Amino acid sequence: MPPAEPEPVVPLGDLFLRTSRQVRQRWAASLTPWDLAPHQGRALRLVAELEPVRPGVLAEHLRIAPRSVTDVVDSLEQRGFLERRPDPGDRRATVLHLTQTGREVRQAIDVSRRVEADDFFGRLSGRDQTTLRRLLLRLAAEPPTTSDTTTGNAATSNSLPEGGPR
């Protein structure tokens, strides 16, 4: 019997992206009872965490253009999940607040998200989950770097020449 072919080595980045995609798909699916898109779910969570929050600040946290956050806020406001109020510190500005319905939906989403995460990561032993959590926290705490493929050195993205890599 010929020796078995070794399994191909899948690059770590590819495995991480594949796993992240699965988690994101489960997250999106968990929002279907409320007919929310993932960006709307994130907006709801951020308003709850930052409230009262100006729409521009919400846009920064969502990493979208301020004009794009208007559509997100409008849709959540129309559904009764949040409301705009005058900013007490600046009469020209508005701040966002969750409504009672928005708080209830956000809490239900949090429960659903935890159930999905427990199901997904439940395939790992408790020890493996602890190790994964520790490793992910370490990676999340370090500043992102890009590899300089010509020298093999890691360089921060801020050290690239103006205009990016050439």
Annotation keywords:
166 residues; alpha+beta; Arc Repressor Mutant, subunit A; 55% helix; disordered C terminus
Please count the helical segments: 6
Q: Helical residue percent?
A: 40-55%
Write down the CATH topology of the domain at 27-134. Answer: Arc Repressor Mutant, subunit A
Structural class by sheet pairing and helices: alpha+beta
Span between N and C termini? Answer: 51 Å
Q: Unreliable stretches, pLDDT < 50, 5 or more residues? A: 148-166
Gyration radius (Cα, Å) is 21 Å
Average pLDDT confidence is 87
Shape: elongated
Name the strands of the widest sheet in spatial order: 1-2
Number-wise, the strands total 4
The share of residues in extended strands comes to: 5-15%
The CATH homologous superfamily of the domain at 27-134 is termed Winged helix-like DNA-binding domain superfamily/Winged helix DNA-binding domain
Please tell me the CATH architecture of the domain at 27-134 by its name. Answer: Orthogonal Bundle
What profile does the largest beta sheet have? 2 strands, antiparallel
What is the string of helix and strand elements?
HHHHEEHHEE
CATH C-level label of the domain at 27-134: Mainly Alpha
Structure write-up:
- There is one protein chain.
- This protein is α+β, with helices and mostly antiparallel strands and 166 residues long.
- The protein has a domain at 27-134: Arc Repressor Mutant, subunit A.
- It has 6 helices and 4 strands.
- The chain has helices at residues 12-30, 38-50, 55-62, 66-78, 100-121, 126-141; strands spanning 82-87, 90-98, 145-147, 154-156.
- Helix 1 (12-30) crosses helix 5, helix 2 crosses helix 5 (100-121) and helix 3 (55-62) packs across helix 4.
- The chain is elongated.
- Mean pLDDT is 87; it is low at 148-166.
